[in-house]
Specification:
Blueprint lengths: L35 E4 L2 E4 L15 E2 L21 E6 L1 E5 L16 E5 L9 H5 L13 E5 L1 E3 L2 E3 L5 E7 L15 E5 L5 H5 L4 E7 L2 E4 L5 E2 L7 E6 L3 E2 L3 E3 L7 E2 L2 E2 L6 E2 L6 E2 L1 E9 L3 E2 L3 E3 L8 E5 L4 H12 L29
Antiparallel strand pairs: 1-2, 3-17, 4-10, 5-6, 6-7, 7-25, 8-9, 8-24, 10-22, 11-25, 12-13, 12-15, 14-23, 15-22, 16-18, 16-21, 19-20
Length: 355
């Protein structure tokens, strides 16, 4: 397994978003939060607002129905180097909203760059996303993906064209992976993490990269000024679910990273999070190079990178891709086609829809 694809195990660090006082372009903050904690110059407002999916505002959104009776799979199926497909999604808009951390509170968060669903805003719910449009190649992918906006000085730097969002097996038994439940949402990483926490986060792959520079926790001081050089980052999400909640108050506790089975090199889901789901990996490319001294995130320095996922896939489309590519042990593009195994066919048609 290549170091870029290696799945690391461990616990997800704190992952709430925040209102930041950095004054970056496009960032708007609303009224002063009723409770807050400070950490390394950041202010994390605690959300207490209710939403249509969480009417009592306690932060718990139960799965209906829950997934019960599952034990973590320790099987070791025939080795396949790949078990993945891509969701190729473009940037649709930016907005200082976060429907996971600050539901129904427009302007409450730092500025985010949204990919995928074109309607994502503070009021987004599973129903509104499912009725929206998408900037993903597959029309069935109506999910919302977002991350803090990157700036060079006061100028937003937005990824151009379809970005690569991998859906992989995070566990050794790739045949045990099942599709995300509709409405599942979580935050990966934390804007409040320290540089050391970012570097040792279980989702860390190679940090910030440009040219021959990688494993950076902060933005490189400079990148080669060539048309083919961009600033890149890859970061992996937890892929084990508790089967009970679509969201929890900290937006992380219902999810966990795989752990290593004692005495083996096998990755398995922990007992408290036994349901294996696809492991999302962001692979983002930002068109900036040369002098990087003014590059920063809306959430702060480079080590504050994090992202959010809100599942609104068409159920049948997602299942077709997971079953064909992940469970089937293939390396698929956004159609669910593996060019090294043409005999397997594709999960979707030429229009990226179910045939």
């Amino acid at each position: 397994m290549s170091r870029r694809s290696k799945i690391l195990s461990g616990a997800l660090v704190t992952s709430a978003l925040l209102v930041t006082p950095l004054g970056l372009g496009g960032v708007a903050a609303s009224s002063t939060p009723s409770a807050a904690v400070t950490h390394t110059g950041h202010t994390m407002a605690l959300s207490t607002a209710s939403s249509p999916e969480d009417p009592d505002g306690d932060g718990y959104i139960p799965a209906n129905p829950p997934v019960t009776g599952v034990t973590p799979s320790a099987q070791n199926p025939p080795h396949r180097y790949f078990h993945e497909f891509q969701a190729n999604c473009s940037v649709s808009h930016t907005r200082p909203d976060d429907p996971i951390v600050y539901p129904q509170q427009p302007g409450r968060s730092h500025d985010h760059t949204f990919l995928g669903n074109t309607t994502t805003n503070a009021s987004s719910t599973t129903a509104t996303l499912s009725a929206g449009g998408t900037a993903c190649k597959a029309p069935g992918d109506l999910s919302g993906y977002w991350m803090p906006t990157l700036y060079n000085g006061d100028r937003p730097v937005l990824p151009t064209g379809p970005q690569v969002i991998y859906y992989k097996a995070g566990v050794t038994d790739y045949t045990s992976v099942r599709p995300f439940p509709k409405g599942l949402r979580f935050v990966v990483g934390s804007p409040m993490q320290s540089a050391d926490e970012f570097r040792h986060h279980p989702g860390f792959v190679e940090g910030w990269e440009c040219g021959d520079s990688f494993f950076n926790t902060e933005f490189p001081a400079s990148c080669p000024s060539r048309p083919d050089v961009q600033l890149n980052i890859r970061f992996q999400a937890p892929s084990c679910w508790d089967g009970r909640y679509l969201d929890t108050p900290d937006h992380k506790s219902h999810m966990a990273y795989p752990v290593v089975k004692p005495g083996t090199n096998d990755n398995v889901c922990p007992a408290g999070h036994p349901v294996a789901l696809p492991m999302i990996e962001f692979k983002m490319a930002f068109p900036v190079n040369g002098d990087m001294s003014k590059v920063r995130l809306a959430s702060g320095p480079g080590h504050s990178f994090h992202y959010d996922f809100f599942n609104a896939w068409d159920d049948r489309t997602l299942k077709a891709l997971v079953d064909h590519c992940v469970v089937g042990g293939l390396q698929c593009d956004a159609r669910g086609y593996d060019e090294t195994h043409p005999e397997a066919g594709a999960a979707l048609g030429a229009d990226y829809r179910l045939p």
